[in-house]
Amino acid sequence: MAENQRKAATQANAPTQAPVLRPGRAADPVPAPITADAPASASVPASTSQAAETAPADQVPDTGQEPDKSSGSEGFRNEGSSGTERVLAESRQRKLRLMLRQCDRVLLMDFDLLAMNGWPDNFTMAEARRGRDLWLFSALIAAAIFLSGLTGFVPAWIAGGGFGAFVIILLLGIPAVRRIYTSKPSYLDLIMTRQRMLREARQHVAHLEGSDGLIWQCARMADFNPALKNTRFSHLLRLSENRILSRQLTRREHVRLYLIYLLEAEKAYSRVQKAFFEGNQEAIDQGWEEVAAEPEPRT
Asked: In this structure, are residues 266 and 108 in contact, taking their beta carbons and an 8 Å threshold?
């Protein structure tokens, strides 16, 4: 017992020793040592790489990087479509500009001159014709009485009265004298009025048609006004194309038909002008200076 007490005292008086660390398991797994089975295990990655090489191209693993071919082709496609739109816009503007240039004489139309509002109607002409026939019949009766008196068939005083009536009737046929007792135009005045109005209308049509013709060139605006495609205008279009339209307008109905066509052409011209300005503004917005160029001035 005394020996145990000495050992305890000796341990108490000895200096404190550092703790001893005992070896444990490694923090990371150590690769297994290569053994005789290594060739068999190495053949597995080789077969895997061979399978990867023989795999189809569409099963290549995604690397996260897309090729730039799609973006390049898309830009080329956009550029090609933009160029096509520009060519189409330029062609359309050139076509509209040509229409406006060839049909601008439609704006010179004189409606009142071609409408012939003062044209004597058939009733007025028939009434004037009846008055003319009565005047001629009265003059013939008076002349017959006077000639009968010269032959002695009737008394001289009756023949003298017939001569006086014949002179008065002739005086009433003079326009200056006739206007004294009536304001109605004579049949001859109405005929001259019709001829004058028709002549003025034909002169105006010849001015509008010019040397190249007008309405047959306006026929290309039919897309903007389908009324220009009406078959009743086909004869006028053919005459206009042959440059003989003004000489063939011999009746008022022909002039009125020509006026109707000009009114429809004027509507189409305004629509063509609107489409041209809209296309011009669109070309300016797109930056197409050649398309938006103004038409050359007429010489």
From this structure: no
Q: Which residues lie below 8 Å from residue 161, measured CB to CB, with a gap of 6+?
A: 145
Spans of the chain below 70 pLDDT:
1-82, 286-299
* Helix, strand, or coil (residue 126): helix
Residue given tokens 């009434």 in the structure block: 127
What are 266-271's contacts with CB under 8 Å, separation 24+?
Answer: 266/106, 266/107, 266/109, 267/225, 267/227, 268/218, 268/221, 268/222, 268/224, 268/225, 268/228, 269/99, 269/100, 269/103, 269/104, 269/106, 269/107, 269/218, 269/221, 271/221, 271/224, 271/225
Residue 55 is predicted with a pLDDT of 43
- Give the span between the Cα atoms of 229 and 99, in whole angstroms: 16
Contacts of residue 171, Cβ cutoff 8 Å, sequence gap at least 6: 177
